[in-house]
Amino acid sequence: MRHNYRNWPILLVLGIFSTPLLIMLVFQVVDSFTLKQPGSLIPSGFTLEHFRFLWEELDTGRAGIWRVTLNTFIFATTTATVVTAIALTAGYALSRLNFPARGFFLAGLIVLHAFPTVTLIIAIFLILQILGLYDTLIGVIIVKTALELPFGIWIMKGFYDTVPWEIEMAGVQDGASRLRVWWQLVLPQVQPGLMAILIFSFLSGWSEFILPLVLAPGSDAQVLATYMQALILDDTKADFDLFKAVGLFYALPVVVIYVIFQNKLMNIYGGGSKG
Amino acid sequence: MQLDLIGFTKRFDGTPVVSGMDLSVASGEMIALLGPSGCGKSTTLFAICGIHRIDEGRLMFGERDVSGLPSQRRNVGVVFQNYALYPHMSVFDNIAFPLKVQKADKDQIRRRVGEMAELVHIETLLDRRPAQLSGGQQQRVALARALVRNPDVLLLDEPLANLDAKLRLEMRSEIRRIQQETGLTAILVTHDQVEAMSMCDRIALMNNGRIVQIDGPTRMYRDPMDKFVASFLGNPPISFVTPEDLPCFGAPKACAEIGLRPEHVGPQFGTGLTGEVRFVETQGREDLFDIALPSGRMIRSVQPAGSGLRPGQTVDWGYDAAELLCFDRQEVRL
């Protein structure tokens, strides 16, 4: 392979900027598994003690890690499923159907996508209280889903736009109903988009912090992000090694998902299928 | 199946795109909807297959009025310009799709797809994906898919536009052969006069949302109804002169313009038409001359190659008086 530029300057710059991140990651992993004298950077022995949260209750009055993990998982999967389901249909409608106020909806999507969601949090808080959904997992899921939707719909619309409309017309000519055409002929071609939205909204739900913190502060609806926050907040003497171990546990699924699906995630920037 | 379009009108946002069009296609006939872009030919095609609603008028397939029926129930086979094959399905599944929608049983599907593959010569390609096929092969698959459920009418929307010149020639005769073997009533939409003339029994030439003339290709070429038809058909195109340019020709009084086809101008028709050669285009078998008359008007002539004439030379050629086309001030043929 021929290069019309040299590789090493790029590698050097990338290396310089990545080193701090790399060091942080290394210490995250090393500290989670080792004992250390105070003030020293060099570990003095191997231990699994920091992972004790996995098999024993840390203290009374707090939800166990497995319960919290289950909460987080439910939160992330439900959000991802609902976002994907709505984005698939809404994106199709915006891309293909000519309905009243279509332009308004398109503009609204962009505005909502760019809108800083934190500014809405007071209003959402009040609404959830009135609806009786405050401090419930369901309430947080609904809010998170609503906030994720503009992005999902917009991306899906982009994928649908790349499918030639003649394919749908051909399907209709072949005698299939509009629903069947969408399901059998169009959907397979936006499948990369579907995967990308599913994974992205799952990861986004998995790492969500502000919404559960404000809208569901009780222990019943706790997720991993708020669990970690409570961990360093409560203790008079913060146990940072424990905190790092929980962090590692929290980040593991994200890493696994990225490794498995990285090709699919790249699609979101490419967009569309090649006929 | 006989097809009748009666008083068809289509509007987009209130503006009529096609107005009051009548078209009758005999059973087993292949007719071309020919015209410049924007003349309404594709609109007509989409109205026939049900993609566009028919605003006014009726569409009859034989005795059946299908004007109000949705596409799915019209039983029309369509070949789209970009073929619109389903990229995620094999060739077999593409062709089988219309039958699967009809819930035909497996054996029947296999038999029928086999027949179609044989008809369009793609028996060996059934396991491939559309992306693995050449343009001509994709075209054949699209044809097979359109034909597989025995449609009443076959519609072809610019079927050759995406093919290179050599394939276009091949598919031209292939489509014609398949249409004749199946005996289907077919409508071909095209802006290419050569396609229309070489493939179809009759041509319906459209302009501004109306049919200007319907005739067989030869008839339409030799006997155009107005100046638009005369100038649209023919390659290289016809040239127009005034009666003053041809003083020896006894033009009728009402004649405002005379059309001269390139093949009817040349030394073989005697003398009397002098002019200066401005441009010579070599086409191998023949040369195409642009000649400036003393009045400044340009006429074209096609001559066998090897005349040795150069731009700047003056020629004294003749014309075939029997083949001149006279038009009045309203551009209607006299």
From TrEMBL, chain A:
Belongs to the binding-protein-dependent transport system permease family. MalFG subfamily. The keyword Membrane applies. GO terms for molecular function: ABC-type maltose transporter activity. It is a multi-pass membrane protein. Its main location: membrane. PROSITE patterns: ABC_TM1 (PS50928). Keywords: Cell membrane, Membrane, Sugar transport, Transmembrane, Transmembrane helix, Transport. Gene3D superfamilies: MetI-like. GO terms for biological process: maltodextrin transmembrane transport. One of its GO terms (cellular component) is plasma membrane. Residues 69-261 form the ABC transmembrane type-1 domain. This is Maltose/maltodextrin transport system permease protein MalG. It comes from Pseudoponticoccus marisrubri. Pfam families: BPD_transp_1 (PF00528). InterPro entries: BP-dep_ABC_trans_perm, MetI-like, MetI-like_sf.
From TrEMBL, chain B:
GO terms for cellular component: ATP-binding cassette (ABC) transporter complex, substrate-binding subunit-containing. Residues 3-233 form the ABC transporter domain. Keywords: ATP-binding, Nucleotide-binding, Transport. InterPro entries: AAA+_ATPase (IPR003593), ABC_transporter-like_ATP-bd (IPR003439), ABC_transporter-like_CS (IPR017871), ABC_transpr_MalK-like (IPR015855), ABC_transpr_MalK/UgpC-like (IPR047641), Mo/tungstate-bd_C_term_dom (IPR008995), NA-bd_OB-fold (IPR012340), P-loop_NTPase (IPR027417). It comes from the Bacteria. Coiled coil: none annotated. One of its GO terms (molecular function) is ATP hydrolysis activity. It holds the Pfam family ABC_tran. GO terms for biological process: carbohydrate transport. Belongs to the ABC transporter superfamily. This is ABC transporter. It comes from Pseudoponticoccus marisrubri.
